[in-house]
Amino acid sequence: MNSNSDKRVQRPERYISHALVEVRRFRFLPFFCSSAVLLDLSMAGFKLEFTGNDVVHPGQRYWLSIPLGPLGILGPTKLVNRIEVRWYDAKRRRMGGVLMDGDKTSSQIIQQIIETLRERGKSMRPRG
């Protein structure tokens, strides 16, 4: 019973999103800021697609800014979390990465975002 299937890593469930987000090199400076569409999110990571011709490399770190109003979260106006790039597809302008350095408040907000995405996903599924 020493197969590769026994060694699979259990990944957290991912939730589909279409939220417009910002990827920033510096947290508070408006320079080096790119727009992207958040494609999916989990407690561990994310996938997004840049709207422009941005280039990133695995290992680079950025700040991901997610506006919360469009998601129906009335607390803070946005979540800003440190991220690390794990992969980048230049053809599709897509990037995947992990969330880093999240404190308890950030984790709670991410959980709220996921709950909102989960509920929206249920309401968008065809009935049958």
Topology (SSEs and partners):
Elements: E1 15-24, E2 33-41, E3 45-50, E4 61-67, E5 78-89, E6 94-100, H1 104-124
Antiparallel strand pairs: 1-2, 1-4, 2-3, 3-6, 4-5, 5-6
Task: Provide the helix percentage.
Answer: 10-25%
Q: Report Rg.
A: 16 Å
Question: Briefly, what CATH class?
Answer: Mainly Beta
**What is the typical, i.e. mean, pLDDT?**
84
Query: What coarse outline follows from CA principal-axis ratios?
Result: globular
Instruction: Return the domain count.
Output: 1
Task: Write up what this structure looks like.
It is a single chain. This protein is of the alpha+beta class and 128 residues long. It has one domain: Thrombin, subunit H (Beta Barrel). Helix content is 16%, strand content 40%. It has one helix at residues 104-124, and strands at 15-24, 33-41, 45-50, 61-67, 78-89, 94-100. The chain has a six-stranded antiparallel barrel with strand order 1-2-3-6-5-4. The radius of gyration is 16 Å and the shape is globular.
Question: Which labels suit this protein?
Answer:
single chain; 128 residues; alpha+beta; Thrombin, subunit H; six-stranded antiparallel barrel; 1 helix; 16% helix; globular; disordered C terminus
Short synopsis of the structure:
The protein has a single domain, classed as Thrombin, subunit H (Beta Barrel).
